[in-house]
Amino acid sequence: MSLNTVAAGKILTIMKSVPIENSWSFCPRCGTRSEVASGNPFACSECRYTHYFSPCTAVGALIVDASNQMLFIVRGKDPGKGKLGLPGGFVDSKETAETALIREIKEELNLDVSGFEYLASFPNEYAYGGVIIPVTDLFFVTRVASLENIVIQEVEVHDWKFLNVQDVLADMLAFRTHEQAIEAFRSANSEHGDATFGVGVGSRRFK
Question: I need a surface site. Which of 2, 85, 185, 189 has the fewest CB within 10 A?
Answer without folding.
Answer: 2
